[in-house]
Amino acid sequence: MEKGEFCTYIKDSSVVLIDVRTPEEYNNGHIENAINIDFYSNTFTDEIQAAVPKDKKIALYCRSGKRSASAAEKLSPLGYNVVNLTGGYKAWSSPEEENK
């Protein structure tokens, strides 16, 4: 999902925003209200299942979009409705052109 659409999507109260980067990456900057659950953790899916009810939608992001795409592939078969930010945090934090 592109940045503009993602920004609108995460404003919905039924969406849980999850940053799947490492805690170090998260601490260096993250999207407001994001929960940090490290994709590389051995307990990643357990942590998601403990934190997010299946009736909630999940919006994922990482640094560039690759880890979060892999996370989405892991979570979809578990019954989660998942979207991924195309381009990750790099796309989120880059300035947008004015007056497109």
Could you characterize the architecture of this molecule?
The chain is α/β, with parallel strands linked by helices. It has one domain (3-93): Rhodanese-like domain (Oxidized Rhodanese, domain 1, 3-Layer(aba) Sandwich). It is 36% helix and 16% strand. It has helices spanning 3-9, 23-27, 44-51, 66-75, 88-93, and strands at residues 15-19, 35-36, 57-61, 81-84.
Largest sheet: 4 strands, parallel
Q: Which structural class fits the helix and strand makeup? A: alpha/beta
Using only C-alpha atoms, the radius of gyration works out to 13 Å
CATH class category: Alpha Beta
**What integer is the average pLDDT?**
93
* Dominant shape: globular
Gist?
The chain is α/β, with parallel strands linked by helices and about 100 residues long. The protein has five helices and four strands, in the order αβαβαβαβα. It starts with a helix and ends in a 7-residue tail after the last helix.
